[in-house]
Amino acid sequence: MAKVYSKNESPLVPLPTNAFIPQRDLDKTPVLEASHLGIDFGGLTAVDDFNLTIGRTEIAGLIGPNGAGKTTIFNLLTKVYQPTRGSIMIDGIDTHNMSTAQVNKLGVARTFQNIRLFGNLSVEDNVKLGMHNQISYGMFSGILRLPAYWKQEKIAHERALELLSIFDMQDMADKKAGSLPYGAQRRLEIVRALGTNPSLLLLDEPAAGMNPSETAELMDNIIKIRDTFQIAIMLIEHDMNLVMGICEGICVLNFGKVIAKGTPADIQANPVVIEAYLGRKKEA
Fold first, then answer.
1. pLDDT, tens digit (0-9, with 9 covering 90-100), for 175-196
2. What gap in Å lies between CA 111 and CA 187, rounded to an integer?
3. Which of 33, 115, 216, 31 is nearest to 224 (CA)?
């Protein structure tokens, strides 16, 4: 049975838009408001009429069978794909026609299903790359190694070690990222994403390839990240123990459409969700 974290016991409450967010986030602008979002590839509709609101400190789950459109949603939210229709608001700001870099600066960071680290660079340098939108020294300061450069480098070094300490990885700072075990590389991707100072962190199958012990540790660390940085986290995950154990609100996709939204208890008891995952029972 999934472990239930008492820190997440904040009931979901309705908004005037019929969305639900945790009660503790009612006095804050939702970090994400996706309305009637959809995308077509040629004649194929991959996502249609997707609606989701996430509170500022909510841990949310996006689940569904393989091919349901979950990663496509992440690609839309981060503007890897421009939506065919609908709107995406981040912190109340419309992201229409924004680029991936602009959305990242607005506060959206993500990890990917497949690890995308710079394997030949050090662990610390991978984290520093995530801080690119916070570097304030100019090109000449960097080339000539002026005082402004060294000041920013010192700040970046200290910040990188601070972020790595979340996963007790600060002692690995000088190692090549590609030499790390699989689970450590997964954790490093999350740290690098945190380096962008996000308000919404999107995790695409963060527990993929992890053993039960690593997954349990990941669950604790996701809670720790949310509480430490006071940010929202949305994850795609097939490990239902993880999803049901830490997510407050869950959205279920099937064939590009939302088929259910609610608390873990709501989702576990929903017959439409059960059918989508297990298939319709044959009649006797």
1. 999 999 988 999 999 999 999 9
2. 10
3. 216
